[in-house]
């Protein structure tokens, strides 16, 4: 294989991997703190992209204000979602959480189809058709922005979790909710914040990718299943594990897709997930203690 | 007195019977249609519906057929064969539909063909393009299925013939969705090239709904094909075309490229110059009937018709013509009338079915020159 082709495939893989990580980290955070598998997570990514499209095309907002506004609105939505729906759920009502989030996913997806139709839309910015070219290797500027946003989000989340009191509280609630309560941590406030950050990350992913991929109500569906596989591979509730697994999967998919038939690529995440479940059920980075 | 009462009762009964008879005769003729109204290709389903409704509105405005109004009952199949089997089974069970129109997706049509055959109700296909639909219809096969739009095989044969005469049919890479539509595209191209002792350079399929094509495009680009045949629709097409542009694909596209859906910026950049496409329709076809159709459609929906709307419009007209000539709303009589169809098409030919119940309308050969789509010819399929 030509070196430039290999570099192109690696670069494509890193970008896709970081995009996966943006969605998977939020999912992992919510599971880590609340022990809830959020089946509606992909729909928040879709709503983020839809909102970005309407803010940009309808209100003429630029790329960066759109990204900031969508992330803030998505985090607020997460805050409301927790108080309105998720507050009554605990780890022991796992089946209820699945039914609730699955139902929410259907309502959001079909609501978006009803309101916006399935016609694909594209968020156009002044950079939509701009590329960075080095030799034979090309990458669009907006993909590089998505890459930068993903890395920044990961760094910020890592700092919050491991360098702040709030992060310590989140990890405490994730490890033992009752013990956290006994030492004066409010599990409800911490859980609310975790959901707000998780949904905020989904919104950020949607806004970052709205100018990269076509925006339509069904776009979240395929992403969320891959994100589930990623958080299982990385270790349920392990944020860094999810991020590393996402980037590794992105690179693997790109390299395999560059050599083997593309239809085989989609199976990779699930083959890896099954292998992990068979040989290391706690995931690559899982140690039984989450977040 | 008794005699008087008997006469009155008889008169009342007669009046009621006459009224009931008159009401039965006034009942509309109902056509069933199973199309994707939700799901990934709902936008196409909407155009299919608009096309069929326009043909129906015109027929009803002219007094209907057999003195009765026509109606279409649209049901959603999400472009999913299982959903289509469910909705069509329910439609057929009610026995009120004189024919089933379309299905839109090839996989859907192939799934419902056995149902309509068992029920003895004609299925008139407008949009699904898989060659296997025609292969399984007519002589030695399903006598209830009629396909008005051309097959992929016949259209691609016309396109490859066109390219081959200029020596441009060599070294074509193929990328298509992993559905009956995409598979029919690759088979059609392989057959058309095979007739000219040529082969596809590479063949790749992707899962419908794939958002990222960068890996497969990097692979295809590295193989340096002369052209890329892209079989993608809707959001997949939008993602693919932008990513091909983003990676600087460097070669024109061919096959059934949706030239009318290429983003303006990419089209005007000249990046796709040299692209050739074969389509069953283009709104710029220069016939009086087509101009009138485009104008009416735009007035109604504020958007020009696409090939789906055209196909559904013309196919519905074929079905209405068959009902009229059948002289009855009996499905078997309508099927017999469909066999002898001779209806002028907006594309300048006469729609007639061959032994496989397949019509052979003109296909439009398009090319992109200087960032604009140009019709370079019509070719009989």
Question: What can be said about this structure in brief?
Answer:
The complex is a heterodimer of chains A (291) and B (381). Chain A is an all-alpha fold.
Provide a descriptive summary of the structure in words.
The complex is a heterodimer of chains A (291) and B (381). Chain A has a two-stranded antiparallel ribbon with strand order 1-2. Chain A is built from 11 helices and 2 strands. In chain A, helix 5 runs antiparallel to helix 8, helix 9 packs parallel to helix 11 (265-279) and helix 10 crosses helix 11 (265-279). Chain A has helices at 3-34, 41-59, 63-86, 94-116, 141-163, 165-175, 177-182, 187-209, 219-234, 239-257, 265-279, and strands at residues 131-134, 137-140. In chain A, strand 1 and strand 2 form a beta hairpin. Chain A has one domain (3-279): Orthogonal Bundle (ABC transporter involved in vitamin B12 uptake, BtuC), CATH 1.10.3470. With 291 residues, chain A is mainly α. The radius of gyration of chain A is 19 Å and the shape is globular. In chain A, 73% of the residues lie in helices and 3% in strands. With 381 residues, chain B is of the alpha/beta class. Chain B has 2 domains: 25-150 and 285-361, 3-Layer(aba) Sandwich (Rossmann fold); 153-279, Response regulator (Rossmann fold, 3-Layer(aba) Sandwich), CATH 3.40.50. Helices cover 47% and strands 18% of the residues of chain B. Chain B has 13 helices and 14 strands. Chain B has helices spanning 2-26, 42-61, 81-94, 106-119, 131-135, 152-165, 180-194, 214-222, 234-246, 264-269, 288-301, 307-326, 331-339; strands at residues 29-35, 70-76, 97-101, 123-125, 145-147, 172-177, 200-206, 227-231, 253-254, 276-279, 343-344, 350-351, 362-369, 372-380. Chain B has a 5-stranded parallel beta sheet with strand order 2-1-3-4-5, with helices on both faces. In chain B, strand 6 (172-177), helix 7 and strand 7 (200-206) form a beta-alpha-beta unit. The model of chain B is unreliable at 16-24 (pLDDT under 50). The chains are: A mainly alpha (291), B alpha/beta (381). At the A-B interface, helix 1, strand 2, helix 9 and helix 10 of A face helix 2, strand 7, helix 8, helix 9 and helix 10 of B.
